[in-house]
Each structure stands twice: as C-alpha cells, then as structure tokens.
Amino acid sequence: MKKFAERKVLVTGAGRGFGRALALAFAREGADVVVHYNSSAAGAEEVAGEVRALGQKAAIVRGDISSHADVLHITKTSFEALGGLDILVNNVGDMALDQVSWRQFDEKVIDHTLAVDIKGTMFMIHEVGSRMLDGAGGVIVNIGSQVVIAGSPRAPQYAAAKYGVIGLTKSYARALAPKVRVNTLGAAFMETEALKNRHDWKNGRRDEILKQTPLGRIATPEDMVGPTLFLAGDDSRHMTGQFLLCNGGLAMVGA
Ligand SMILES: NC(=O)c1ccc[n+]([C@@H]2O[C@H](COP(=O)([O-])OP(=O)(O)OC[C@H]3O[C@@H](n4cnc5c(N)ncnc54)[C@H](OP(=O)(O)O)[C@@H]3O)[C@@H](O)[C@H]2O)c1
C-alpha cells in the first residue's frame, strides 16, 4: 500500500522548484494533488499532467497567497476539487533573491517578503486549518529554512519571516490540536532553479556553503522530499509544533 493512498494534498507553489518535486512525490506515493501556482501557469499544467500520468487526480488553482481573498478562493477550490483535503504543504516562499546585500534597503521588497512568507502562510493555515478542524482533521507542513539557525546578513527580512513561520507553527499547533498537526521543515540550501540562478550563488557562495557543510554536498529538492513527507504522514503522528532541521549539518562547523 502506498504511503499516501487516498490522501488529498494541496501543495502551494507547485508549478516549479521544490513545490513541483513535492507534488510529484506525493502523487508517486498515491495521493491526489491540488497544484497551486501564482505565475507559473505552464509549469502547473505540466505538473498536473504528470500527477495524472501517475494515476492520481490532479486539480490546479491560481492565487497570490498574500491576498486573503485569493486564499479564500484557493481554499474553497481545493476542497471542492478533491472533495476535502488531508494535507496542506505551505511551500510558497519569497526568498528576496534579487537582494544581494542588507544595504540594499527597500521598504517595498521588505513588505513583499513579509506579506508572502508570514501573512500568506498565516492566511493559508487559518483557512485550510479551520476547514480541517471542522472536518476530519489533517496535517499542515510549512516549508521553513535553515536560515533561522544563523540569520541572513544578505536579506534579514527573509530570516525574520522564516522565524515568523516558526511562531505560526507553534501557535496553530496549539490552536488546532488535536485534530490538526502543524510542523515546519528547516530546509537546506537546495539547488532549485531560483537558487542556481542567483548571482552570489554562482560567484563563490556555493563553494562557501559546501565547505561549511559536514555532509559535503549541496542538497537537491529531492533531498528535502523525504523529511517533508515524514512530517506530512503518519510516521510523525506524535509531532506537532516542531521545527525539523535538515541541512547537512551546516552551522555545526566551527562550533
Ligand atoms: N531553494 C533553497 O535554497 C531554499 C532553502 C531553504 C528554504 N527554502 C524554501 O523552500 C520553498 C521553495 O523554495 P524554491 O527554491 O522552490 O523557491 P522558488 O523556486 O523561488 O519558488 C517560489 C514558489 O513560490 C511561489 N510564490 C511566490 N510568491 C507567491 C505569491 N505571492 N503567491 C503565491 N505563490 C507565490 C511561486 O509560484 P509561481 O512561480 O507560480 O509564481 C513558486 O512556486 C520556499 O518557502 C523557500 O523559502 C528554499
């Protein structure tokens, strides 16, 4: 029996990057999947096609998660499309990738990161979590970051936002217990297209991170799939409100 057979999953930001890898991994494990996207329409169509080719149901929904009205639409459409939801993965994140230094101080960029990463995650947990609580229950996994271990001198608002996600995780884990579990994955630097294309990544940052990683490699999105599915599945049934760090040991070097 596949691990996620008969489960219904909404993966946000699944038109590309890590969200795409997650949507396909859930489908391989027998789940039906709602593929959410904001601007990657073609990517979302492709992912939904691959989910169907794996023999699972797929639905597509668009929306900007920093808008509460859009989140209401995403939630309603997702529940209706699959006849309920068992799992939500809040994968959407704005890493402020165009910002190369903390000195590049731009209020609009700061507001945007906080609106997507904190407000958007909160809207998603609030709306989907409320429906899960009123129904059969469910599981919510937020995709956080190892950035909370040592901060980000490049984009401090990104680190603050991911710390904020931990606050949301603990708060909603208590508010929605015992029917809904909420946990966060502390993801490593993983080479999605977004990271690979970043200017500083191509110019030394990758080598620096590699040197500081005891496991001696840079993660791929696939490396983060197992820990995410663990948090989404029954193997983590006695975990809620937790932060699971999965970063190849980065930040232990020199400790
Ligand atoms: N890559 C890394 O090194 C790394 C490390 C640690 C943690 N993470 C976290 O892992 C998650 C995925 O990272 P990634 O590398 O796959 O990122 P990515 O390639 O930059 O993708 C970002 C995703 O978020 C969606 N998105 C952005 N703003 C949105 C908005 N306002 N409303 C709805 N969707 C929005 C995008 O959708 P569209 O393309 O459809 O617009 C896209 O699917 C993020 O939460 C990130 O913070 C990544």
Automatic annotation (TrEMBL):
- Report the CDD domains cross-referenced here: SDR_c (cd05233)
Alphabetically sorted, this entry's keywords are: Oxidoreductase
* Record GO biological process: fatty acid biosynthetic process
Coiled-coil annotated spans? none
InterPro entries attached to this UniProt entry: NAD(P)-bd_dom_sf (IPR036291), Sc_DH/Rdtase_CS (IPR020904), SDR_fam (IPR002347)
| Database matches in Pfam families | adh_short_C2
A molecular function annotated in GO for this UniProt entry is: oxidoreductase activity, acting on the CH-OH group of donors, NAD or NADP as acceptor
**What's the family?**
Belongs to the short-chain dehydrogenases/reductases (SDR) family.
| UniProt protein name | 3-oxoacyl-ACP reductase
